[in-house]
Amino acid sequence: MLKKIILLLFCGITTLSLEADAQITRQFTVEEKEGYGLVCFNFSSYKGISTLKREFIGHPISANASLGKINILPSFSHEIVDGVLFANLEHKNVESESLGRTLSYRLFSNSNPDFDHAWDIGLDGNYLYDLNLHFGIGQANLDFSHLPVSNCKIKTASADVYLEYGSKMPNTVNMDTLMVAIHMGSLYADNLQLSNAKTVLFDVSYGSVNLSFSDLMAGTSSISTVVGAGSVNIQLPEQDLPYLVKIKSTAMCRTKIPSYLKEIGDKTYVSRGYDADAKNLMTFLIDVSVGSVSLK
Questions:
Q1: Which of 23, 140, 180, 196 is placed for a possible disulfide with 171 were both Cys, Cβ 3.0 to 4.6 Å?
Q2: Rounded to 5 degrees, what are φ and ψ at 169?
Q3: 263 pairs with which residues across the strands?
Q4: How many CA atoms lie within 13 A of 103 on its CB side?
């Protein structure tokens, strides 16, 4: 009798394990190659690990999903209107995520490293993109190398964003606006000058913004960073390049400024190569309420 009970328990645990590990795979593709000059891609996933990068796919969009614990399947649609391809891929959650549950995902993410779902999105470098990306809980890994992007807006509820130009290849077009808004999480962006963005906006309610610049943008640019509670860490361009830094902070914010920056006004600093009329002047606007600012 005891052996039967043990066998039944073992079978039950095995079944639960198989159900927990079960994954549903889906692929979504836009195969139309002509009839448009711009791809407006709207992507939204309420939870998961998402990866977006350039792929040699011969068409504008290919997305592969590995989904677990399904409560609703993603919806996908696309159409061409007035020379613009509009593509929408959305994965909703029919179960409400409480604040406590959201915090538990943030604090104990190592116990659930894939956040149930994984997305692998490929874009082709032969098309021009306008990106509107929303990530709920989890992580977003974005590599924009070799991708022409005219606009990019990223929003997350509680997801970390890793934005890079891995192969050091710049945006082949001038980007108008790059915006990242995070409610709770962190942003990590390397070689951001390769975005060639005119306006860069970072807004984090709770978390950190971590940026690196090894050069300036091709033209004049403004990088605005606002953090409610957290930290801003920026690797500035070389000191002989023209840029200006303005900091707005409170008594509850620690500030660390490199010695080579010259203060020309209240919390306003310039590099050694500063020139107000420079064609590639970069302006950093930093606003932190509670936390720290560290510039290197």
A1: 196
A2: -100, 125
A3: 269
A4: 4
For residue 133, give the nearest of 148, 121, 125 by alpha carbon. Answer: 121
- What confidence category does residue 116 fall into, taking pLDDT thresholds of 50, 70 and 90? confident
Residue range 232-247, pLDDT digits in tens: 999 999 999 999 999 9
Q: How many CA atoms lie within 13 A of 18 on its CB side?
A: 6
100: which residues sit within 8 A by CB, 6+ positions away? none
Per-residue pLDDT tens digits for 54-73: 999 899 999 999 988 766 78
262-292 pLDDT, tens digit per residue, is 999 999 999 999 999 999 999 999 999 999 9
